[in-house]
């Protein structure tokens, strides 16, 4: 019996762009984050990329892509983005901006276009796992495809 993979806005966006990816389902755990995804899929958490919805001091939303095993230095990110302050959105606000539920947020096919900031070292990985637009669903693809589709600003914002 074959598994049925979800068709989300993210998948529609990837298909429309002609991107190749593989589907990976796992048992979602509330507040489990990238560690649970990595353990479930048997991959290094460094290759599981978090999609975070944040906002600047004017409440303008933005997407941050970060390694699963790293945290974002919002101070460093704000400096590189040319704003005074960046903070995470509340889950409700993040859901509103992205069109996805927190824990299932994909950077592809978001409800509203937002600037994307990606940790520069992600670009050097051969393959990454990133949310496919549903809790418990990751897609594996090349970072070059993420860069081609999202045109992110590459930053060095991982906390030391």
Structure description:
There is one protein chain. The chain has 160 residues and is of the alpha/beta class. Helices cover 26% and strands 26% of the residues. It contains 5 helices and 8 strands, in the order H-E-H-E-E-H-E-H-E-E-E-H-E. A hairpin with a 4-residue loop joins strand 2 and strand 3.
Mean pLDDT: 96
* Count of individual domains: 1
- The outline comes out as globular
What share of residues are in beta strands? 25-35%
The description of the largest β-sheet is:
8 strands, mixed
Q: What is the N-to-C order of secondary-structure elements (H for helix, E for strand)?
A: HEHEEHEHEEEHE
Q: Which residues form runs of ≥5 with pLDDT under 50? A: none
Helix content: 25-40%
EC number: 4.2.-.-
Domain YbaK/aminoacyl-tRNA synthetase-associated: 35-149
GO molecular function, one term: lyase activity
Protein name: Cys-tRNA(Pro)/Cys-tRNA(Cys) deacylase
Keywords:
aminoacyl-tRNA deacylase activity, alpha/beta, Cys-tRNA(Pro)/Cys-tRNA(Cys) deacylase, protein biosynthesis, 8-stranded mixed β-sheet, 26% strand, YbaK/aa-tRNA-synt-asso_dom_sf
Quick recap:
The protein is α/β, with parallel strands linked by helices and 160 residues long. It is 26% helix and 26% strand. Strands 1, 2, 3, 4, 5, 6, 7 and 8 form an eight-stranded mixed β-sheet that branches.
